[in-house]
Amino acid sequence: MPLTIAVNISASNLQDPQFPESVAAALARTGARPEWLELEITETAIMKEPAVAIAAIGKLSHMGVQLAIDDFGTGYSSMAYLKKLLVAKIKIDKSFVMDMNTNRNDAVIVRSLIGLGHNLGLSVVAEGVESAEVWDELKVLGCDSAQGYSMSRPIPPDKLDDWLRHSPWGFKGQ
Question: Is residue 93 part of a domain?
């Protein structure tokens, strides 16, 4: 399983007509393959100038860069824009995930967002997973992956290789 590096990008990045070319140049300079890069975009960044953002996202997607909508469910995106975006993934905001075992409304929202994402052919990630119980429930709901303290606290670079080899979330023995 290849690793990807996820980078948050801002509204100003999406509004910069040279941004896709800058990303292509950085990939060429480093020798990184486009599919190794995942750019995370917030709904708010998309809504600032939707037509410009959609064009930039389209160029990046056609280059092979992976794109995800970060903090999904907290912005003001229209479902009409969601179907136009060439993204592969939505990341459900932690504000819904963290209390889904104790807050019925949060659980309904999470279940609905997982269904929406899958019905649109998108991968769904839950952010803010801080307990095994929440992760177990997310798996039952069909969530594709998760991030949060239940998986790992931040890891210093010199400890990453060991974590990847020995963590239940890593790539044992590879």
Answer: yes
